Amino acid sequence: MQTRLYVLAEELNSFIRNEDIYGEDAIIKELKKTFPNLDINDLNNIIALIKLQNKTFAKEVISAELVATVPALIHSKKTRRTIGVLREYIHASKHTILITGYTISEFVKDLIQLLNKKASEGVIIKFFLDKHVDENFIKSIVEINKNFKIYKLVNSKVYSNLHAKIAVFDNKHALISSSNLSYNGIINNIEIGSILHGEGVRELETLFEVMLERKFFKKLN
Amino acid sequence: MQTRLYVLAEELNSFIRNEDIYGEDAIIKELKKTFPNLDINDLNNIIALIKLQNKTFAKEVISAELVATVPALIHSKKTRRTIGVLREYIHASKHTILITGYTISEFVKDLIQLLNKKASEGVIIKFFLDKHVDENFIKSIVEINKNFKIYKLVNSKVYSNLHAKIAVFDNKHALISSSNLSYNGIINNIEIGSILHGEGVRELETLFEVMLERKFFKKLN
C-alpha cells in the first residue's frame, strides 16, 4: 500500500500543479484504484480538499527563484536574469514598488523611466537611497510626481550605509540581490539574487516603515 | 459543502505542518464528519496520501526566509539576523560549503575559524574570492587543509567583479544577500538577504563549477 500511495501522491501532485496537462478524469481513475469504496462525490470532494490545503500551504510559504547577473557566455537555464526580473515586475506592479539604491548610475535610466511611468499611472513608488547618493542626479532622472517618493538615509552613529539591494513589488514579490542599479550590477559583474513570492515579503516594507518612523530617512521630495 | 471543505483544508494544513500540536485523532474526527462513508483504513490512507503529496510539492519548491542586518533598535521578528544564519548553517553543514567574498575583513575571523574547523572535520569548503581580495590576508586566516579550496577571480574583458554575496550549505540551503563578510555587512549597515531551502539551490554550485571550467577563477592553494 505504501508504494502505491507514493506513486499516487506524485500523480496527484502533477495533477494539482499542471491540471491542464494531467486532467481530472485520469486522477479520479487513479484514486478509485486505491480507494474502491469511495463514490464519485467523495472522490471529487477529496480532490477539492487537497487543492484547498495546497493553497493554504502555498499562502504561508515564501517561495523563491534564483536570479543572476552572469557573463553572456554562461548559460544557466535555472536562473533568471536580474534585468529581466526587474523589468517584468516593475511592469506588472499595480499598487506599490519599494526599491533601494546604494549605487545608481545613468545606465539604469530606462528602469527609472519605467518607474516614472508607473508613478504617473498611480503606482506608489518608494525609493530609498543611501546617504552618499547624489540627490541632484536622482532629481534629474525622477519626474516630479506625488506618487514617486524619494527618501535618503541620514547620518547616524548607530548605522553606516543602506547597502541593501532590494525591490518589493505590490508587497507580494521581492527581488533580493547583490546587484546595484548600475552597469556592473546589471551587466558586467557576477551577481546573485533571488525573487521571492508570497505574502511574507510584506515584512520588508514594514521594516522600512519602522525605519521611516525612527527618522533613519529624510524625504527628498 | 464548499465552506466545510475550506475549514477542513485549513485544519488539515495545520495538522500536516504541526502534527505534534494538532494530533491525528482530531483530524480523523474532522475528516469523518465530511466523509461519513469512509472507514478508518481509508481515512488513514488519505492522510498518508496528502502528507506524501505535500512532501513532493515541498521538494520541487525553493522556500525562503528573510534575513537582515539592521540596527539593534529595530526589532523585526520576521527576519533572521545575517550573522546568526551564517553561524547556524556553517555549523550544521556536513558535506560542502560554497562561499563568496567580495569584501572580507578581520571582523569575520571567527566565521573563518569555524570554516577551518569544518574543513578539518571533512567538509569541503569552496571559497570564491573577487580579484581585488588580498591573497596574503586570506592565506593568513585560512588554515592549510586540502578540504579548504580557495579560488580567485582572474582579470577578464567579459566580466568585472565577483560581487555576489552568497553561501551555499550542503547544496540544500543558500544565503543570498547584500552583506559582505565585514563589520559593515554583518553589523553596521542596513542589509537584506534571504536564506533559501530546497534542492533547487544546487544550481548555484553548478554555476560556479561552470565558471571554474571556463577558467574564470584560479585556485590559490
Explain what you see.
The structure is a homodimer of 221-residue chains. The longest helix of chain A is centred in the first third of the chain and has 21 residues, at 40-60. The model of chain A has no long low-confidence stretch (mean pLDDT 94). Chain A has nine helices and nine strands. Chain A has two domains: 2-60, no CATH class; 63-219, Endonuclease Chain A (Endonuclease, Chain A, 2-Layer Sandwich). Chain A is an alpha/beta fold. Helix content of chain A is 45%, strand content 22%. The first copy, chain A, has a nine-stranded mixed sheet with strand order 2-1-8-7-6-3-4-5-9, sandwiched between helices. At the A-B interface, α1, α4, β1, α8 and β8 of A face α1, α4, β1, α8 and β8 of B.
Quick recap of the structure?
In chain A, 45% of the residues lie in helices and 22% in strands.
Total E-strand runs of chain A:
9
Radius of gyration of chain A equals: 23 Å
- In terms of structural class, how would the helical and strand content of chain A be classed? alpha/beta
CATH class of the largest domain in chain A: Alpha Beta
**What is the helix content of chain A?**
40-55%
CATH homologous superfamily placement of the largest domain in chain A: Endonuclease Chain A
Biggest interface, and residues per chain?
A: A-B, 82 and 82 residues
CATH topology of the largest domain in chain A: Endonuclease, Chain A
- Oligomeric state, counting identical vs distinct chains: homodimer
Q: Tell me about the largest β-sheet of chain A.
A: 9 strands, mixed
Instruction: Give the low-pLDDT segments of chain A.
Output: none
SSE order of chain A, as H and E?
HHHHEEHEHEHEEEHEHE
Strand content of chain A: 15-25%
Shape of chain A: elongated
Task: Output the number of helix runs of chain A.
Answer: 9
- Placed side by side, the strands forming the largest sheet of chain A appear as 2-1-8-7-6-3-4-5-9
GO molecular function (chains A, B): phosphatidyltransferase activity
Protein name (chains A, B): PLD phosphodiesterase domain-containing protein
Domain PLD phosphodiesterase (chains A, B): 158-185
InterPro entries (chains A, B): PLD-like_dom, PLipase_D/transphosphatidylase
